[in-house]
Amino acid sequence: MISPSSIALTGFIAWALLLLVLMEVIRTQLVLRGKVPANGFMPDNSGLSPFMQRLARAHANCIEGLPIFGGLLLVAVVTGRTAITDQLACVFLAARVFQSLIHLASTSATAVTIRFAAFAVQMAIGLYWAFRLLVSA
């Protein structure tokens, strides 16, 4: 049976991949329509629509968090201590996806506050996991 921790780790990776694929599909369309040359993209999508800039940042947020949060999940899975991470694994993944969706939707003050709250949930869960994994070693 696959643990919730394994599902959350795979889901986190899949979510980051989905954001990347979405960004590249849109970029490909821009190139094919002659709106942007193939070598005309910046990593942060500057010069493109505000949505594309938010998409680049949402993807970067996932990539920045993956080594930390994904690493904790991986430690739990590899060491057989998923009992520590399983209870909050789906909550963590939901907070990650929610943060990205809010990021894509808006940069209003309210949206930024909600986005930070979703990230704060992830940080709290990560700290809890790190502490529990360390003391159970």
UniProtKB/TrEMBL annotation:
Pfam families: MAPEG (PF01124). The chain crosses the membrane at residues 57-76, 112-131. Keywords: Membrane, Transmembrane, Transmembrane helix. It is found in: Membrane. Its main location: membrane. This is MAPEG family protein. It comes from the Bacteria. SUPFAM superfamilies: MAPEG domain-like (SSF161084). InterPro entries: MAPEG-like_dom_sf, Membr-assoc_MAPEG.
